[in-house]
Amino acid sequence: MKLLLLRRGVLAALLASFGLVACAEFMNSLEESTDENTALGSLVRGANRLRKSFQDLDPSEEHYIGRSVAAQILVLPEYPLADGSKAQGISKADIEKLDAYVNRVGQGLSIACDEVRQTFLGYRFGVLESKEINAFAAPGGTIFVTRGLIERTESEDELAAVLAHEIAHVTLRHGLAAIQKSNLIEAFKYLGQGAAQATLDEQQLQEVTGLFDDSVQDVVASLVKNGFSKEAEYEADALGQRIAAASGYDAGSLRRFLQRLGKDGGSGGLMSTHPAPAERLENLPDIGSSSVPKPAAIEARDQRFRAATRS
User: Fold this and answer.
1) Contacts of 2 (CB under 8 A, 6+ apart)
2) Hey, which residues does 143 pair with through a beta bridge?
3) pTM of the entire predicted model
4) Minimal CA–CA distance to 251: which of 238, 236, 270, 234?
């Protein structure tokens, strides 16, 4: 009985986090056919209130989806959070310094441009212990960047260009768009079956809870394995470039970083989940010298960058 109640609680939380435009008519009719005083009726009404479109999710709901996605990334053995343990080859003091620096740059980007969509608890940045050149943006504003990527950047402006690209993914809600609607449609089908009997049995609870869990896994798969569509990456490149420029960084930094990646070659990481650097460069808008830092600013950034990343 306790297990059943626990699963109902998990399901209620999941239902409060997801919705589909395609299910609007179905969910309305399902709400009308269920007793609001039953557990199922309460679940259906909760789902329907928050439903219909991922664009309709309020910031707190998107935050909790993103938190689940971030947790799934951190349990992957290839992407541990950098913590300065002996096995990682960097001291705790150095990783704390690096983490604080990445957050400082990221937070500055998140508030300097009017195009950045503000999130429920703001943007959060973390460093992953991986030699891969990679970065991930979970819904709601949790952004991870690998030490391998940081080591490949040559300036604060280039690091800012990468972080701005990830902030753009959050702003454009690309992570939420990765959720397979088929999973949620199937989940609502189980709810419809339950409506006929005014409750969900144990097996149906397992099925529908699993389907919602699959939706979180869809986002993780897009971030880690499959990548977003080429169009989404080009869109994030363009917006990220504007975010960096609005923050006072060199508008050409992303272009230089991509040129170097293309020249160096390699595989894995963002080289396998993103369009080839040459394709990204071809589609990257030329915003010219809309933002060229003053020499004094460049020198100050170079000093910060070297102090934090070249320990």
Assistant:
1) none
2) 125, 137
3) 0.74
4) 238
Distance from chain centroid for Cα 99: 18
Q: Lowest mean pLDDT of 98-107, 234-243, 263-272, name the range.
A: 263-272
The one-letter amino acid code at 303 reads Q
Contacts of 302 (CB under 8 A, 6+ apart): 155, 156
- Element of type H or E holding 9: helix 2-15
| Mean pLDDT calculated for residue range 4-9 | 45
70 in Cβ contact with 142 (< 8 Å): yes
Nearest one of 179, 180, 172, 289 to 233, comparing CA atoms: 172
What is the C-alpha R_g of the chain?
Answer: 22
Cβ neighbours for 244, distance < 8 A, ≥ 6 positions apart: 109, 157, 160, 161, 164, 250, 251, 253, 254, 291
Q: Please state, in angstroms and rounded to a whole number, the distance separating the CA atoms of residues 260 and 285.
A: 18
Beta bridge partners of 20: none
Instruction: For residues 231 and 219, give the distance between their C-alpha atoms in angstroms, rounded to a whole number.
Output: 17
Residue 287 φ then ψ, to 5°: -100, 15
Q: Are strands 142-146 and 135-138 parallel, antiparallel or unpaired?
A: antiparallel
